[in-house]
Design brief:
seven-stranded mixed sheet; elongated; alpha+beta; Alpha-Beta Plaits; about 950 residues; TPR-like_helical_dom_sf
C-alpha cells in the first residue's frame, strides 16, 4: 500500500517558517522502475522533488508549469504505457531558517492511500481546475476515483496532443567583472575568463553578448540553467586554484526573462544591486535556486534577509562544496537580520538598521577595548545562538532596542558592544580622545590626556553627543571665529555635515582638519574619517588610498590596515581582502572574531566564512598540539622538579591558566594557549639550564669543601676515633663523585642529584662542625709536639749553661769574702737546684713563645709538604696505571696488525709475482713477502 503520510513524515517540520509560498503539489505512485525521462520532464519544468519512498514520490511546483509538465507526460504515456498514478493538489512551500524546505497540504489530503496505481491517470484537485483550463489544450473530465482518495470532486486531466506544452521558463545569465576598465589586471583577468568560458558556451550551444563590461547569455530551459551553473562554478574554482595571475573577481546573476530583451542595455534594466552581490557565485531568486535541485545548496545574502520572500536573491554553491565545509571545524554564523536590513549605512557603526543621527554611539563616552576579551570567552560554536538572541532582543525601532541591549547583561550585550567597538575610530567618543591626546605615537596615544580645555568646542561636542545638531552648529560657528586655525571645529563640523547628509562638505571639513592637525595621531585620525566618508559614499578606491596613507603614519595600529580589507570586500575583492585580514589576525588574534561578526563584510561573508573555517580547522589542530605540549610540559615539570620546589609552584599557576584557555573553543584562546605553551617551555628550559648549572657549581663548591675537610682531617693523630666522621665523609665523596660523573641534563639524574646535594650539604655542615673539634685536637696535639720539642732543646741548652755556670759561681765565691760568698758556698746544692728550676721555667716560656709565633707557618708548611707528597704518590700511581694501559693497548694493536698481515695474501690470491694465474712462474702462486714475513 502506498501512503501519502509516509512521504510527508520524511520532510522537516518548522515551528516558524522563514519563507512561505503557495503552489502545486503532485503525488506520484508507480509500479516497477520509474523512467528517467519522466523524472527529467518534471525537473525541466521546475519541479522540486520533496520526498520519495519506494515507488512513490512527492513533488512541488511554484507555477502552472506543473500542468504543462503533466500534459507532456500524459502524451508520452500514451506511447509508453506504464502503471502510474498522479494526484495534483494545492500545496504550500515552507522554507526554514537553515534553508531546508518542506510542504504543507490540507489536513483532509494527508491520510490518502493507494493500493495499486493501475493505468496512467492524472487526478486534479477541484481548486486547481481553473489553473488547468488556463493552459491552452488542457481540460478536465469526471472519472471514478481510486479507493483511498479523499472524498472530493476530483477530475481527470485531458490533454490535446496538437498543442505545444514546452516549458516557458527562461533566464538571462549576466556576468559582470568588478573594478575599473582602466586597470590592467581587470583587462587581463576578464579576457582570460572569456577565453576559458567561450569553449563552454560553444559546447552548450548558447548565444551571448560580450564586451569589456559584461557577458550576457540567454538560458532557455531549466536543464540548461542547471548545467550552466555547474560549469561556471567549476570553471571559477579551476581558475582560482591555478594561481592569482589570471583570476579576477566577478558577479553573476540569472534574471528571469519576463519583460526583458536580449541586448546590451539589459544589465541597466535589471532591478539588482550589483555592488552588493557576492563575487564568483551565481545569484538567483530563492524560487529558481530551489528549483535547481539538491545538487546545489542555497545560501542567503544579508541585505535581503528581512524580506522573507521567495523572490529575494540568494547565491548557490555545489552540494559537494558544502559537504566539504560541513565538518566539525566549519563556521556558519548568521548575523542578526534586523541589524543588516536596510538601505542606508550608518557612518558611526556601519549598521543598516538606522541612520547616523539615530546611532546609539552618540551616548558612548569612553572606549571599551575589554569587550574583545569578553567576546573571546564565548565559544565560536555559540556565536550563531548569540546572534539569534540579539536579533530576538531587537524590535522594529532598532536604535532604541539597541540602547536597551547595550545597557543589559549577557552575551547579547557583549556582541552588540563589540559591533559598535569595531568602528570606534569613526565615533564621537574617539574624537574626544583625539582632542585631548598630545602623543605623537599611536602605541601610547591615550596614555596621557590633557584636560578638556577650549571655548565652545566642548559645548558643541556635548550637543552633538546629545543629538542636538542645531545647537552644535551655533557653538561651532563661534569656535571657528574664535580659533580660525584650529583643527577642532573643522573636525566636528565634518560630523555635523555628515549627519546632515552633505557628504561633500563633510569631506572638506575632514580634509581641513587633517591639514591643520599638529601631531601624527591627529592627522591619522582625520585621514581615517576622510576615508570613512568616501567609504560611506561608495568611493572605495579613494577610501583605500586614504587608509593606506594613514597606515604609513600609524605603525603599530592595525585599524587602518583592517579598513583596507573591508573596502576590498565591499568592492567584491574578497580573496584579495583575505590576505589583508590574515596579516591582521597574525598580529592580533582578536581580529578573527571581529571578521566573523563584522556586519560590514556581508557581501563576502560566504567566502570569508569558508576561509575562516580553514583557519579555524588549522587552529583546532594547533589546539590539539598545544594541549599535547602542555601535557608534555606538565610531565617534564614532574620529572625535573618536586611539588615543593619554588619554581614548580609558580609554574602550576601558569598550567592552571593555560588549561583554562584550552577549555574555551575560541581562536583567541587557541592562539593564547599556543603562545603561552611556547613561552612556558622557554621558561622551563631556561630554568632547567639554570638549575643544572647551579647544581654543577654546587658540586664544585661541595668538592672544594670536602677537599678542605679531607686536608684538615687527614692529619688527625687518632684515625680510629673518626668512625662517624669517616662514614659521613665517604658518603659525601661517593655522592659527589656520582653527581660529577653523571649527565645532569637528564631529568632522573637531575632529581637524584638535587636530592643528593641536599644530603651532601647537610653532611658537609655536620662534618665541618665536627671538624672544629678535630681541628682543636689536631692543632693542640701538633702544638704540644712542637712545644715539647722547643722545650727540650731549650731545656738542654739551659742545663748545659747550668753545668757551666755553677762551677764558675762556686769558684768566684771561694776567692771572695762576704755574706753572699758564704751563702753560695753553704747553699751551693740548693742554688744548683734553684738555677735548674729557673732555667726550666725560662725554657718553657721561651718554647711557648716561639711555638706560638711559628706555629701557623710550620703547620702550613708541614701539611703542604705532606699533601704534595701524598698527591705526587697518587698521581704517580695513576700515571703508572695509564702507562700500563697504553702498553697493553699497543700490544693489542700490534697483534691485530700482524694477524691482518698474515691473512691478507690468502684472501687475495692474485697478488702474486706472476699475476692472477701465476704467469712467469709456471702457473704456481708465489706470495709476496709481507712486512710480517720480512720481520
Amino acid at each position: 500500500m502506498y501512503s501519502l503520510s509516509k512521504l510527508l513524515a520524511q520532510m522537516p517540520s518548522f515551528t516558524q517558517s522563514r519563507m512561505v509560498t503557495s503552489g502545486i503539489g503532485i503525488w506520484m505512485v508507480y509500479s516497477g522502475h520509474v523512467s528517467k525521462p519522466l523524472v527529467q520532464t518534471l525537473m525541466d519544468h521546475g519541479g522540486v522533488q520533496l520526498a520519495t519512498d519506494g515507488n512513490q514520490s512527492l513533488w512541488f511546483f511554484f507555477s502552472k508549469e506543473a500542468h504543462r509538465a503533466l500534459a507532456r507526460l500524459q502524451i508520452w504515456l500514451r506511447l509508453n504505457p506504464l502503471q502510474i498514478f498522479f494526484e495534483v493538489m494545492p500545496a504550500t512551500f515552507l522554507v526554514g531558517y537553515d534553508m531546508t524546505y518542506s510542504v504543507s497540504i490540507a489536513p483532509d489530503l494527508k491520510d490518502q492511500y493507494l493500493s495499486n496505481p493501475g493505468d496512467p491517470v492524472i487526478w486534479v484537485h477541484p481548486k486547481l481546475e481553473e489553473g488547468v483550463l488556463s493552459v491552452p489544450g488542457l481540460g478536465v473530465k469526471p472519472g471514478n476515483v481510486h479507493a483511498g482518495m479523499s472524498t472530493l470532486d476530483w477530475k481527470l486531466l485531458f490533454t490535446d496532443p496538437s498543442f505545444n506544452y514546452e516549458s516557458e521558463l527562461g533566464w538571462y545569465f549576466i556576468i559582470k567583472p568588478l573594478g575599473k576598465k582602466l586597470d590592467k589586471e581587470y583587462s587581463t583577468g576578464w579576457r582570460y575568463f572569456y577565453s576559458r568560458v567561450e569553449p563552454i558556451i560553444q559546447r552548450l550551444g548558447l548565444k551571448y553578448i560580450w564586451n569589456d563590461s559584461f557577458l550576457i547569455l540567454p538560458i532557455d530551459s531549466m536543464r540548461l540553467l542547471r548545467n550552466w551553473c555547474r560549469e561556471i562554478i567549476y570553471l571559477i574554482r579551476d581558475i582560482k586554484s591555478g594561481g592569482e595571475g589570471h583570476y579576477w573577481p566577478m558577479v553573476m546573476a540569472a534574471v528571469p526573462k519576463q519583460g526583458l530583451n536580449f541586448n546590451e542595455d539589459l544589465p541597466k534594466k535589471v532591478a539588482l544591486e550589483w555592488n552588493r552581490l557576492a563575487p564568483d557565485y551565481p545569484h538567483l531568486s530563492f524560487r529558481d535556486a530551489f528549483t535547481l535541485g539538491r545538487d546545489f545548496d542555497v545560501n542567503e545574502i544579508g541585505y535581503s534577509m528581512s524580506k522573507g520572500r521567495l523572490e529575494d536573491w540568494c547565491h548557490i554553491t555545489l552540494g559537494s562544496e558544502s559537504k566539504e565545509r560541513s565538518t566539525e571545524q566549519s563556521i556558519q554564523i548568521k548575523l542578526p537580520r534586523k541589524l543588516l536590513a536596510g538601505d542606508t549605512e550608518c557612518f558611526y557603526c556601519g549598521l543598516k538598521s538606522h541612520k547616523a543621527p539615530d546611532c546609539p554611539s552618540h551616548g558612548f563616552m569612553t572606549l571599551k577595548p575589554e569587550v574583545w576579551e569578553e567576546l573571546a570567552t564565548i565559544p565560536i560554536s555559540q556565536y550563531s545562538a548569540v546572534c539569534q538572541e540579539l536579533d530576538e532582543a531587537l524590535s522594529e525601532s532598532s536604535a532604541t532596542s539597541l540602547n536597551r541591549v547595550l545597557e543589559s547583561t549577557g552575551k547579547a550585550r557583549v556582541l552588540a558592544t563589540a559591533i559598535f567597538e569595531m568602528t570606534a575610530p569613526f565615533q564621537l567618543r574617539f574624537l574626544r580622545l583625539i582632542w585631548r591626546s598630545r602623543s605623537k605615537d599611536w602605541l601610547n596615544a591615550f596614555d596621557q590626556l590633557a584636560p578638556e580645555e577650549g571655548e565652545y568646542i566642548w559645548v558643541a561636542m556635548e550637543c552633538m553627543q546629545g543629538q542636538k545638531r542645531e545647537e552644535a552648529e551655533v557653538q561651532l560657528k563661534q569656535a571657528t571665529l574664535r580659533f580660525p586655525r584650529s583643527y577642532q571645529p573643522r573636525s566636528l563640523n565634518g560630523f555635523v555635515s555628515m549627519e546632515a547628509q552633505d557628504g561633500n562638505q563633510a569631506l572638506y571639513y575632514f580634509q581641513e582638519a587633517a591639514r591643520l592637525s599638529y601631531t601624527p595621531v591627529q592627522k591619522v585620525h582625520f585621514l581615517m574619517l576622510h576615508g570613512r566618508m568616501h567609504e560611506i559614499l561608495g568611493e572605495y578606491e579613494k577610501a583605500t588610498a586614504l587608509y593606506k596613507e594613514a597606515e604609513l603614519l600609524s605603525r603599530g595600529w592595525g585599524e587602518s590596515r583592517y579598513r583596507q580589507g573591508v573596502c576590498m570586500v565591499k568592492m567584491g575583492f574578497t580573496d584579495h581582502a583575505m590576505n589583508v585580514f590574515q596579516e591582521c589576525i597574525d598580529k592580533n588574534p582578536h581580529y578573527f572574531n571581529r571578521i566573523l561578526l563584522d556586519p560590514e563584510l556581508e557581501r563576502g561573508r560566504f567566502q570569508i566564512q569558508a576561509t575562516m573555517s580553514e583557519l579555524w580547522k588549522d587552529a583546532k589542530e594547533l589546539d590539539k598540539e598545544a594541549k599535547k605540549q602542555l601535557e608534555a610540559l606538565s610531565n617534564k615539570m614532574t620529572a625535573w622538579f618536586s611539588k615543593d620546589h619554588e619554581f614548580s609552584q609558580e609554574v602550576q599557576k601558569s598550567f592552571a591558566r593555560l588549561r583554562s584557555y584550552g577549555e574555551i573553543e575560541n581562536y583567541v584562546f587557541v592562539r593564547k594557549l599556543a603562545a603561552g605553551c611556547n613561552t612556558l617551555e622557554e621558561e622551563i628550559d631556561k630554568r632547567i639550564e639554570s638549575e643544572v648549572s647551579r647544581l654543577s657549581k654546587k658540586v664544585e663548591i661541595y668538592f672544594a669543601r670536602l677537599k678542605t675537610i679531607m686536608r684538615e682531617a687527614s692529619w688527625f693523630p687518632f684515625p680510629k676515633m673518626l668512625r662517624d666522621f669517616s662514614r659521613d665523609f665517604n658518603y659525601c665523596a661517593e655522592k659527589m663523585h656520582w653527581m660529577y660523573t653523571q649527565y645532569l641534563k637528564n631529568a632522573e639524574n637531575f632529581r637524584r642529584g638535587q636530592a643528593y646535594s641536599l644530603e651532601v650539604e647537610e653532611r658537609l655542615d655536620r662534618l665541618q662542625k665536627r671538624l672544629v673539634t678535630l681541628r682543636l685536637l689536631r692543632d693542640g696535639t701538633f702544638f704540644g709536639l712542637i712545644l715539647g720539642r722547643n722545650f727540650l732543646w731549650m731545656q738542654l741548652v739551659g742545663l748545659g749553661l747550668a753545668l757551666l755556670l755553677m762551677p764558675l759561681i762556686v769558684y768566684l765565691a771561694e776567692h771572695s769574702s762576704g755574706y753572699l760568698s758564704n751563702l753560695i758556698l753553704t747553699q751551693k746544692w740548693n742554688l744548683q737546684k734553684g738555677l735548674i728550676l729557673v732555667l726550666s721555667i725560662v725554657a718553657m716560656c721561651l718554647a711557648a713563645l716561639r711555638t706560638a709565633v711559628t706555629f701557623e707557618k710550620r703547620k702550613r708548611k708541614f701539611f703542604d709538604q705532606e699533601y704534595e707528597r701524598v698527591r705526587e704518590e697518587r698521581l704517580a700511581r695513576e700515571r703508572k696505571k695509564r702507562d700500563a694501559f697504553k702498553a697493553r693497548r699497543k700490544l693489542q694493536v700490534e697483534a691485530v696488525k700482524q694477524a691482518q698481515a698474515v691473512v691478507k695474501p690468502a684472501s687475495k690470491p692474485w697478488k702474486t709475482a706472476g699475476g692472477p694465474q701465476g704467469r712467469g712462474t709456471g702457473g704456481k702462486q708465489q706470495d709476496k713477502p709481507t712486512p710480517a714475513s720480512r720481520r
